[in-house]
Design goal:
The structure is a single chain. The chain is an all-alpha fold. It folds into two domains: 2-83, no CATH class; 87-161, Arc Repressor Mutant, subunit A. The chain contains seven helices and no strands. The model has no long low-confidence stretch (mean pLDDT 84).
Length: 172
């Protein structure tokens, strides 16, 4: 009597779990449980409804177990990621990079206004020397001088941050 619902229940479960093997497992377990109820002597006025209800509950349980497994996997990945975090994500390294960036920005801000403007337009806005010259109303050679001055100032800042001796000063 229950066998006539097998294909129908299998299609239902396959749509729900989107895995034919898992659907077959759910159907098999549903049949086993419903047959256990029937063999226990309990009344089954609607065997089809009981099969579907059992299958739905098994699918819900399966989803819950899968969610727990995924949560545990995420926790394990997070633990692994913390244990093997790249050095650039370490707090000390992030702080050092932030301080480095602040020093470079301070160096750029300390440049004379026209020099800073030429440097920013060229390096950050991507304008060519000629475009910067046209924008600022100065010669292309003057733009080059401004940019060289700014680059040298940034290089000096880099050297100071990296502990290199300043030009003209010798280590003892």
């Amino acid at each position: 009597m229950l066998e006539r619902y097998y294909r129908e229940l299998l299609n239902f479960c396959a749509r729900m779990v989107r895995d034919p093997h898992a659907a077959a497992d759910v159907v098999q377990e549903s049949y086993a449980r419903v047959l256990a109820v029937r063999n226990s002597g309990q009344a089954m006025p609607e065997p089809r409804a009981l099969l579907y209800q059992t299958a739905r509950r098994l699918i819900i349980d399966r989803h819950r177990r899968q969610a727990v497994r995924e949560h545990d996997d995420i926790d394990a990945l997070a633990d692994d990621a913390q244990a093997a975090a790249p050095s650039h994500l370490e707090p000390e390294s992030l702080y050092a990079h932030e301080q480095h960036a602040r020093a470079i920005v301070a160096t750029i801000e300390a440049l004379p206004p026209r020099c800073r403007e030429a440097f920013v337009l060229n390096r950050f806005e991507g304008l060519s020397h000629q475009e910067v010259a046209d924008h600022m109303g100065i010669s292309k050679n003057m733009v080059a001088q401004h940019i060289i001055r700014a680059v040298l100032a940034c290089k000096a800042c880099e050297d100071a941050l990296n502990g290199a001796p300043l030009p003209g000063k010798q280590e003892k």
